[in-house]
Amino acid sequence: MTSSVPPSTQSAVRWFPPSYDIRVETVPIPQIQDPDDAIVKVKLAALCGSDLHIYRGHGGVDAVHTCGHEFIGEVVALGSNFGAKVERRPFLYSSLKVGDKVVSPFTSNCGECHVCRMGYTARCPKGKLFGSPALEGGQAQFLRVPMAGGTLFNLSDPSTWSSNLSQEIKQQALSELSDSSLLLLADILPTGVFAATQAINHPKVQPVVTGRPWPLCFSDSPAGNEVMLTQEDRILTVAIVGLGPVGVCATVSMLDLVATKGIPYRIVAIDPVESRREKVKAVYDSIGDDGKGRGEFVVLGIDAAKEQVKAWTKGTGCNAVLEVVGNSSALTLAFELVRAFGVITSVGVHGEPQIPFTGREFYNKNVSLDFGRCPARAMFPPAFDLLVKRQDVFGGVGQANSLIDRIVGFNEAAESYRAFDKGEIGKVIFDPWK
Amino acid sequence: MTSSVPPSTQSAVRWFPPSYDIRVETVPIPQIQDPDDAIVKVKLAALCGSDLHIYRGHGGVDAVHTCGHEFIGEVVALGSNFGAKVERRPFLYSSLKVGDKVVSPFTSNCGECHVCRMGYTARCPKGKLFGSPALEGGQAQFLRVPMAGGTLFNLSDPSTWSSNLSQEIKQQALSELSDSSLLLLADILPTGVFAATQAINHPKVQPVVTGRPWPLCFSDSPAGNEVMLTQEDRILTVAIVGLGPVGVCATVSMLDLVATKGIPYRIVAIDPVESRREKVKAVYDSIGDDGKGRGEFVVLGIDAAKEQVKAWTKGTGCNAVLEVVGNSSALTLAFELVRAFGVITSVGVHGEPQIPFTGREFYNKNVSLDFGRCPARAMFPPAFDLLVKRQDVFGGVGQANSLIDRIVGFNEAAESYRAFDKGEIGKVIFDPWK
Fold it and tell me: Where is each Alcohol dehydrogenase-like N-terminal domain found (chains A, B) (predicted)?
């Protein structure tokens, strides 16, 4: 065997049933199986809180597989459908090249069905979750990306996505942003932006955003003799329940949205764990003056947060609550904090317990609820814009305000899963080549 | 006693505990108790499906009271706060006069608190439900309206509300519309408009409305190389579950919204009861050509509706489902019909059963849900506009396409409650002077 023969095996982080069993194994390097496939050489792959569902044996999964649904890398092979321009196929089928740097959402998606065209890529009927028995994950040196023209996001060609930023600014940002910060695009940053975007665009929040009462807020007809909103009425009160990495991203996104739209705000970020609260405080401190004068932002434990919302709103409650945990107690807290005619946006991954409310409770509070998984592929453009704006927050590793705690090799994979599961460490990134 | 002495007693339809006991009694005519009060002489008062909750003894109510929360009438007395213009008080405190014709929402509301200014009048902290032990109802010859400047809607002065219609058209419509059709403003018409308005303004429906994928639909930034929606993608598919009077109003409102906004549509109106389906078919037939060429509209039973939605959407499901029933089986049907990233708007009055879904089910379908009571006072302007546009539908009594079945005197009150409860008759209006 000489060095000119390409390697046929690689290292990968593998999960073994029934639970808590992570092993680094030597496995074959994947090959193109379908003309729409890409093979990606992984530069970095992250460990995500939702990986712990399977790790703990709660995922209903019983097959050995390569872990991980957050990865960034470089295209090393493309199927035969790349290179040809075919009308109404995703642009990457005609533009993606070997050597391009790419990030992927946590699920594959075709990009060319009705659901994908709507932007609801996380529910593409052909989509699969990376790092599951259905699709090998990114905690490996190489992986296969199916439907890659629909799935991947080309970080070497910023002309491939729309943005409020100019091509020049995007290009410069791409040259400056670290791989570890770009990796946040894979899941947690778009999920945070998704939560905040749903809330601020909800009909029930529009009186605050537009300054016109419901339902005048939906029309441009001149107001009559209605009593108009006061300045005080137009303060958007938001609670964010759960300050894991996605909760931090949701917080930063919500702060950015209110600053960009010029909306006065009161935002409370809530977590019972002090270390998480300290992280969010450090993140907030590292944000510049952007809109800060227009609002109040506090980070509190559960009981203190309830008191704060009562004091702010005289008992009315929050206009919107972002629920970023995914269990019944988080939903119950969200319901307690939200006002009548308020909105709960839930991006937490919920399990089997029945929704802990009666129909009467929902009716009596006129509550709105948005559930579910972020369509990460569709959310990349605004998430990228936020990444560029908030490099102060998303750029670092291992600092007080960093979302990423450490970057380690696969030799530390099993221990990292164990410690992350126990809450002993924050978000970990694997460098498969370290 | 001579005829020059004003009467001090009146007839009223009263409910007696524990259930199914309706009596017409002679009771005192109410007097001004508070400077914000109005006394209204009732011209017509309607029987509403939600009256049946108390009628059947399901309302948790045990005190004798005058029934009814839908009424139209004439102001005969005003408290001392009327006539003076006070800044930021509702306009009617300075403009309402004895002799004005008024309609009321089914709950009182102050019109001057934060919740009311937002337009969420149905949840005014000071509000009370007419026809409950907290507030005597409208099925009487006279009633007292508290916080009347905030609560009432002045049908004698169309300058008091904003509208897309000109003052001239509003004035002419007010002179032409029958009292029985204006009475629909009290509850069922605004509730139907509310259901449709919430759905069509929901973020998850915006790709269909704007033609731009999520989340581009929220920005005006130029699209990049995204795959854009096709004509087929832009067809709004809606189901309306429950075709009682509110369901009919929701159907007419949804048809009007898609016609006005120029949105291609497929709408299925669903009820297991054939007579209700026949009513909706007659209503649809009486609507002119307005936008009909742009969509499909069908009225079906439950199983046929499921098949229809599958056939229309190749199994994807509806963008929005309006749930106008208020029980678990209606919610379950709505959930079955709605697509991933779809919206369920529920205006049905739900009871004590727990919401019949797990968190996992909500997460996996990315479902959005809007619950609760219509802020009828705030919805009067668009509901009035729809009333004017659709006099063909809302104008009649006792015809195949009429929402109102009959107008009777109080002597038929007890029998009307009984027959309405049994589903033997449609919507009944009482004329207290007949």
Answer: 35-147
